[in-house]
Write a structure and sequence with these properties.
The complex is a heterodimer of chains A (65) and B (677).
Chain A (H helix, E strand, L loop, with lengths): L8 H13 L4 H11 L8 H14 L7
Chain B lengths: L2 H20 L7 H27 L9 H4 L11 H12 L3 H9 L4 H28 L6 H8 L2 H30 L3 H24 L4 H24 L11 H17 L6 H26 L23 H8 L9 H5 L13 H24 L3 H8 L2 H4 L3 H10 L6 H10 L12 H16 L4 H38 L9 H24 L5 H29 L7 H23 L7 H13 L5 H40 L20
Classes of the chains: A mainly alpha (65), B mainly alpha (677).
Chain lengths: 65, 677
């Protein structure tokens, strides 16, 4: 699953912050597409972001009291 | 950790409790409170948490999680356990664990602290963990859907109605907390108003100019927000600008209602999503800062362990220690709302089943710790200041001098000159009757921060704390209105199919307007209430949140019974029974008590008597009496709905246990993980 190029420290911190806030991670999506579905077309970052927003806010609360 | 370390942890926790137990007539240091809490959490996590993980639920690291099986790089993403722990914590922790303990501090620091620590270990963390487990074994299904599939369609619909009703009360009371902390405060209003253009800027940045660059936009947002905070002082001191941002509670309430409607109708990328990110980073950052600040300052607790108000005569809210301490502190000990998050985004991101113990059980322990910090910050304040800020204006009178007399009558002392100096130092015009807890917590946090990180900045720290609370409360209001809108659309879709289409404009506008009107009604009612609103609405919120927890625990128990784990069902039945006792007693007292401050019906009669005696204007009196009866009706509806859920669940358990119904497990079938063990 891991890419053979080690990401830099800054990129790792960025991933951590994104995951913490529940932000979309386009790099992870690209990685997922490359390893799981190399035959399928890949969404652009803008399209990926739109799809993510739909999935995140469409059902159920994301925040508590 | 080696066992010698665990013995030390246990001894440290025991030492904390020992100091708290033995200190009588002298002040206790907040450090002992924190030591006792953390020691208890760690031991409970190791012993009870492991028991729940291995015996009760049987987490299995060989079983592939939904994040692995359904991985799509989007919402189903396998995520490391510490990162997901942080994410889950940021999603469950909001204003609840901060405000509840501040209000419950009127009983003294001890009752709230005991309930927060032991409640979380035996109830709150158990609920969050078992629901997370159940949802994780069912491809990340929601609580409502699990209720329908595990117990029955009738219960599922009831659960959904209950969730919707509770959401309306929750949003109203949270909005009331914000209004109470921003009324007549130009500094606070300016800072919070600035968050709207900042969020719009971030939204356009992420959607239009630099699509998907969420971290860039958030960094810009945080910097602008801090500038707005500092700029607020300048606005408040300017004779020309200050009046523009000085508004009464009623005006702010209507503004908030209009804003909530817009946020629900506008696309998520414009307002909701950017505010969501902004408040997450502010929340995590500030909680860490508060922990460091408390460790550095480790203040003495000025509030006694128990106050005389355990008899139910307290000015902050009416009602005796039992059941109202356990109603006032919901989040932090157990919160039904968490069950919605634990069956939402989190179960779709768990990488290995075994991680669920840290995320579900551990995440809730962390929220409890936030509640303990809030309790420490509030009780480290001088009790006179605490009561002058939290009692309603009706009890305090209009001036600092009359407040000082009232506080003296309650057995504490308040120096008018010192209180004025404090008001001036935090840059406010008045701190009297700032009910709702947010302002008190902000003063407590400002004390801690200014002593830890730099004296003389009280005003900035106070408004930083107000901004931090208002920011994530408003995010909850945005998100909650939207979720409520979706749920209402789904229900309305059963009446007339086109109304069920989420993106059909007439339907979304109608549903948003209905939800906003629902919570807006209770919000305005709370602002107009001469007793401060919190006295009637916060208990209603506590009762509804705890009743949602009973629904969640019913689902959790059903899952255990059907999985053949009936002998361990006491783990969820124990908190269920306790919550039923607490909420039903509280609801009964809130409706039928003869004390007009406590019972809604008696309150309505008292208002009508005042109208007859000419002490209250007839129009206002009629509205107050109507509101009180409406609150009573709502409490009855909550109790009836919950009772139906409990009874239909119990029937299901008995049918399964007596063998009249097959114990059918609806889990997704076992697939072996591809991860290395």
């Amino acid at each position: 699953m891991r890419s053979d190029v080690q990401p830099g420290l800054l990129a790792q911190v960025a991933t951590l912050l994104r995951r913490l806030a529940g932000m979309p991670d386009y790099e992870a999506y690209l990685e997922h597409c490359r390893t799981r579905h190399p035959d399928r077309p890949v969404e652009s970052e803008a399209e990926f972001y739109r799809q993510y927003l739909r999935a995140r806010y469409a059902d159920g609360p994301t925040r508590c009291c | 950790m080696p066992s010698i370390a665990w013995i030390l942890v246990a001894l440290a926790g025991a030492a904390g409790w020992g100091v708290i137990a033995l200190a009588r007539g002298e002040t206790v240091n907040a450090a002992w409170l924190i030591l006792a809490a953390v020691g208890t959490y760690l031991v409970a996590y190791r012993i009870y948490g492991r028991f729940l993980a291995t015996r009760v639920t049987g987490l299995d690291d060989r079983r592939a999680t939904p994040a692995e099986r359904l991985s799509n790089g989007r919402d189903f993403v396998p995520t490391g356990r510490w990162v997901l722990f942080g994410h889950h914590f940021a999603a469950i922790a909001g204003a609840g664990p901060l405000v509840g303990p501040v209000l419950a501090a009127q009983f003294g620091y001890l009752p709230g602290t005991l309930w927060i620590v032991f409640g979380v270990v035996l109830a709150g963390a158990v609920q969050d963990f078992v629901i997370l487990f159940a949802s994780m074994r069912r491809d990340g299904r929601s609580l409502g859907r699990m209720a329908r599939e595990e117990i029955g369609p009738f219960t599922g619909t009831l659960a959904m109605v209950a969730i919707l009703a509770i959401m309306v009360i929750l949003l109203a009371v949270l909005a009331l907390v914000v209004v109470k902390s921003l009324a007549e405060s130009p500094w606070g209003v300016f800072t919070i108003l600035c968050t709207i253009p900042i969020a719009l800027l971030m939204g356009f940045w992420m959607e239009k100019w630099r699509p998907g660059k969420t971290l860039e936009a958030s960094a810009i947002g945080v910097v602008l927000l801090l500038l707005a905070l500092v700029g607020g002082r300048w606005v408040a001191e300017s004779p020309a600008l200050a009046p523009l941002f000085t508004h009464s509670g009623v005006a702010l309430a209507y503004g908030l209602i209009a804003y909530g409607f817009l946020a629900s109708v506008l696309p998520v990328w414009m307002l909701l999503c950017p505010r969501d990110y902004l408040s997450t980073f502010m929340k995590v950052g500030t909680v860490c800062l508060l922990a460091v600040g408390l460790l550095v300052v480790h203040p003495h607790l000025q509030m006694p362990a128990l106050t005389r108000f355990v008899d139910g005569t307290g000015p902050v809210f009416a009602g005796k220690l039992f059941p109202f301490a356990f109603i006032t502190i919901a989040c932090g000990a157990i919160s039904g709302f968490h069950a919605l998050v634990a069956s939402g985004t989190t179960p779709r991101m768990v990488r290995r089943e075994g991680d669920a113990r840290l995320i579900g059980y551990g995440g809730m322990l962390m929220e409890s710790f936030v509640a303990i910090m809030a309790m420490a910050a509030a009780t480290a304040l001088d009790p006179g200041t605490y009561f002058a800020m939290n009692a309603p204006l009706a009890a305090l009178g209009g001036s600092v001098e009359s407040a000082a007399r009232a506080v003296q009558g309650w057995g504490f002392s308040l120096s008018p000159t010192e209180f004025q100096a404090l008001t001036h130092a935090v840059g406010e015009q008045t701190l009297l009757a700032r009910t709702g807890g947010a302002a008190t917590l902000a003063v407590g946090m400002a004390h801690v921060f200014s002593r830890a990180f730099g004296e003389g900045l009280m005003g900035v720290w106070y408004h930083f704390a107000i901004m931090f609370e208002a920011l994530f409360i408003l995010t909850t209001v945005d998100a909650g209105t939207r979720v409520g809108r979706f749920m209402l659309q789904e229900l309305l879709g059963h009446v007339w199919a086109p109304l069920g289409r989420q993106s059909w404009y007439p339907s979304s506008i109608l549903a948003s307007a209905l939800i906003v009107a629902g919570w807006g009604w209770f919000l305005v009612q709370g602002v107009l209430d001469p007793n401060g609103g919190i006295n009637s609405l916060w208990p209603l919120f506590g009762i509804s949140n705890q009743l949602l927890a009973t629904v969640a625990l019913c689902v959790a128990t059903t899952v255990l019974v059907k999985a053949g784990k009936a002998r361990y069902a006491w783990t969820t039945l124990l908190p269920l029974g306790w919550l039923l006792a607490v909420t039903f007693t509280a609801a009964w007292q809130k409706v039928f008590s003869e004390d007009p401050r406590l019972g809604f019906l008696a309150g309505a009669r008292a208002v009508e008597a005042k109208v007859a005696a000419g002490q209250v204007a007839p129009a206002l009196g009629a509205q107050l009496a109507f509101n009180a009866r409406l609150d009573a009706l709502l409490a009855v509806v909550f109790v009836v709905v919950t009772l139906l859920v409990v009874l239909s669940s119990a029937r299901e358990w008995l049918l399964v246990l007596r063998g009249r119904k097959p114990a059918r497990v609806t889990e997704t079938p076992f697939t072996e993980t591809a991860y290395a063990q």
